[in-house]
Amino acid sequence: MPEKDTRLEKLALELFRRETSLVLTEFLVCVLVTTTSILGNVFVLFALYKNPRLRKPSNFYIISRTMSDITFAVAGMTLVCVTSFAGRWIFGPTLCWFQASVATMLGTASWVNMALIAVNRLLKVVYPNMHRKLVSARTIFISIFAAWSFTGVIPLSFYIFGVKNIFHPGHQLCLFDFGTASYTLIALIAIFETFLPYKVIFISYFKVWRFIKSHKKASNVYLASKRRRYKT
């Protein structure tokens, strides 16, 4: 038997044989985290709805990210909570594939939305003229649709290329088994799902920080020269 399967069997046995106190603790923590995630994101949507000043196209990105977090909490984390209480996966292979797909898609969607927010902030702060020309409600909707389409392609590509999903008892949820994926597919997913969003976020906020720093320095120089003129 492969070492990986042996390790998963040991974890599954440990999950099933937990003490009652540990089962209740993990279950209650899971319910608390899931409830907090749902309520917190609902409050964000409520604030955007109630405050007219926040009803602007750029905040559609925040709505998109909030919806991805709510959907994952409802469709993914609830299954984790039940599994934690039951001590095993009880929902069958179809829902196992669904949970693995939801976790992959919505986890990526959250990062891609954060990258879109970062790019929007970069254009607005550093390149305001370009922001006025390029950014509108229409282009924002198009970028959000493209982001969700991209993230939806990822689990679909796993299905097409025969990537298997497994229940991982250590994480208490279903995941895709990258051991059954080709190296080419793994490399593409690593680049487009992880590396590019992180890089876009880092570069965008770094440029915003550098612009604000230089602007603050120039303002200080101008104020200092102005004060010197007043003294003379």
From TrEMBL:
Domain of life according to the entry: Eukaryota
CDD domains according to UniProt: 7tm_classA_rhodopsin-like
Protein's recorded name: G-protein coupled receptors family 1 profile domain-containing protein
G-protein coupled receptors family 1 profile domain ranges (all copies): 40-232
Primary location class: membrane
Source organism: Porites evermanni
Transmembrane segments: 20-49, 70-91, 97-119, 140-161, 181-206
Taxon lineage: Eukaryota, Metazoa, Cnidaria, Anthozoa, Hexacorallia
Pfam families, per the entry: 7tm_1 (PF00001)
Topology in membrane: Multi-pass membrane protein
Keywords: G-protein coupled receptor, Membrane, Receptor, Transducer, Transmembrane, Transmembrane helix
InterPro entries found in the cross-reference section: GPCR_opsins, GPCR_Rhodpsn, GPCR_Rhodpsn_7TM
Subcellular location field: Membrane
